[in-house]
Amino acid sequence: MKYSIIHNIQKLTFILSILMASLSIFSCSNKQQNLQKVTTTEPIITLEKERTRGDRIPRYKVEIFKDKVAKYTGLANVAVMGEQLIELEKEEYAAILKQLETADFKTLKTNYKGEMRDLPLTSISIDGQKVTYNQDNCPKQLNDLAMAIEKIVSDKVFK
Questions:
Q1: Which backbone phi and psi does 42 adopt, to 5 degrees?
Q2: How far apart are CA 56 and CA 54, in angstroms?
Q3: CB-based burial of residue 146 (10 Å sphere; 0-12 exposed, 13-18 middle, 19+ buried)?
Q4: So what's the pLDDT on residue 36?
């Protein structure tokens, strides 16, 4: 009798663990499919760390979409290579939009390259307008926008 109760508990535990694993896998793949569906529109903001003279400069691209999804693509010299879809919280998305408004993007020049050529070039594109800069020669509000995007990506991709 004691053996049969223990055996039944073991079978039930095994069945429950298989069921939980299946639900976990289904829920993760379903969420990833949902994220892929919503990112079919054009990005509203694209930030890209571009190649410079230095071969060891981290290169990646972040695209932010209206549906509060960001797509990170690790290109070279980063811990996470390839594409990652990130679901942004309402507050994170609102913070980026606020930084964008503060940057007054449409009034910026298209190029802010400084004297230090080994610094990474960063480009930000919004509505077809692209601004390229390195950090030793750019308006503070432009750098603040990039930093806001990079912080969110760093917190979510490189956790």
A1: -75, 145
A2: 6
A3: buried
A4: 53
Rg of the chain over Cα atoms, rounded to whole angstroms, equals 22
pTM of this prediction? 0.73
Determine contact, residues 130/111, Cβ cutoff 8 Å. no
Tokens 């223990």 sit at which residue? 6
Alpha-carbon distances of 77 from 14, 73, 80, rounded to whole Å: 43, 12, 9
Least confident of 57-66, 82-91, 112-121: 112-121
H or E segment to which residue 129 belongs: strand 129-133
User: What's at 68, amino acid-wise?
Assistant: K
3-state secondary structure of 28: helix
Q: What share of the chain is helix, strand, coil (3-state, %, to 5)?
A: 45, 25, 30
pLDDT at 30: 43
34-46 burial by CB neighbour count: b if 16+ within 10 A, else e?
ebeeebeeebbbb
Partner residues linked to 125 by β-bridges? 46, 130
